[in-house]
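User: two proteins, same treatment. go.

Assistant:
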Amino acid sequence: MKRILIIDDDASVRETFLAALADRNYALETADSGAAGLESARCRRPDLVFLDLKMPEMSGVEALARLHAISPDVPVYIFTGFYRSFLEPLKDLQKRGITFDLARKPLTLAEIRAIADGVLKHSIDTAPPYRPTRGSR
């Protein structure tokens, strides 16, 4: 089962993500801060992270850099209403080879589902299909 980690300090946003993905076959986990999200990622590697940028104590930019150090290949989808405030720090992360996707808040339930399904289906589809060899029965 694919694991999705949702990191946002706003409980209503976390609940929206949970509601959007409840009928999907994903293991869902939430964290109310960057630090809690990093601890969760250390304990159980996520297959996808939804990350807010504007959070107290540790910004999403800092959390993203630390998450990359833990699991550099985990897809991260940043969602924020404040992307312009974080544009330069995000560009700096990209220059360091840290990849992410960006979406503006608010996301609809359909958008959340489409992102999760698209990212996680893609990771499943990267495995080569099984093809029996000639003569095998």
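Protein 2:
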Amino acid sequence: MKKIEIFILSLILIGAFFVRLYKIDNPIADWHSWRQADTAAVARNFIKDGYNFFWPQVDNYAITNEWGLQNPNRLFLVEPPIYQTIVYAAYKVWGVHEYIARLISIIFSLGSIILLYLISKRFFGKLVGFWSSIFFAFIPYSVYYSRIIMPEPMMIFFSLASIFTLFFWRDKNKSWFLILSSIFASLTFLLKPYQLILFLPIFYFFFREFGLSTIRKWQFWVFLIISLVPLILWRNYISLHREGIPASTWLFNDGNIRFTGAFFRWIFAERIGKIILGYWGLIFLALGLILKPGKREGWFFHLWLLGIIIYFFVIARGNVTHDYYQISILPVLVIFLGKGIAFLIRPVKEISRIVSWSLVVIILFFMFAFSWYEIRGYYWINHPEIVEAGRAVDKLTPKDAIVIAPYSADVAFLYQTNRHGWSIMQKPLQDLVTDGATHLVSTNPQETLSNIHVPYKVTKQTPTFIILDLRVK
């Protein structure tokens, strides 16, 4: 890269880093705190209970699997704890601080910005490369989900790294780039199996390279085997410990929401149109989509986008329920945004440059403003009482206390206590005491006292929370 490219990209990275520092020291009580709490708990328990990659544990004893199996070991068998392992290593050096976990996500996000620039530049030129990077760096939705304590930022990085090295293999014809690409793909699929949708553009890539003889090429089979075998082995392993697999079949089509008006509204209007693109970004997206693809990229990026849309329909209820499920669309979305804005600002005789530049500025302003208006609430701590109560539990109870912290089944409250226990009253209180519960903490003091007929000792009571010692009556 030339010096001016490095300078501009550096400015983008510096800006992206600083906007991601906004409220980086937030406790895990902001948007989607329940999923962040589980992820963070695994890393923290590696410190507390010892590191075992194949035995990731959360704080929660509650039954979350579909078979009603007890989970006495508090297993959390979703993706392998690759992200949590890196967080654990950082915790070993600097101590357990959630902002460290957020910084690790930010670092992977910055790496994704670089890869997006290189991929976009390769096919569409520097202008599209810079704008794609800018959009990924500063779209408010992207900013928030680039500093969460979840594996998604790492997954985005690995998926882009796989695509970048795959193209690099075609350019350099070096086999080790192909192997590297398949390893990155494997890590992507391990972190989020739904990313198997990447095979749609990847198969297209191999077909363009080898034609109908693709299935006879060793390169294709090397990529397929290396990328898929680790996922198959992991899924086989966790099937031996079903008690630690959270319920997931509901994600596909619970409530038969697929193809309904509500589905289309939530995914394409609320999430992509409003939250991610702030309404006005749809103009850039439309322009980027209608531009005829060049010979170099062919339909690769369109198929990438199509694959993600197919994923939206397959995991219909999950995508409607959770807005972070749409994170996977960001990389290809910003590439099309970059193509659209580059089309508007490039000199064309039939287009007034004054009008086009003015339009670009107006669209960008409204796009980012409206998106930020929707995203700003994600940073809010709407229930600070769970943080206050959790810190009190951590201070006033023994380190081996087993805590009941009911919070609508959200584990964020339990996480704040820094104790193992239950996030939901799945049994009568006396049964949980028999199972080992030593303390109960609640953010509804009066309701708790009125519903509990046994006069347990009050460890601490304030207007916002109460802590009961279940060992003492």
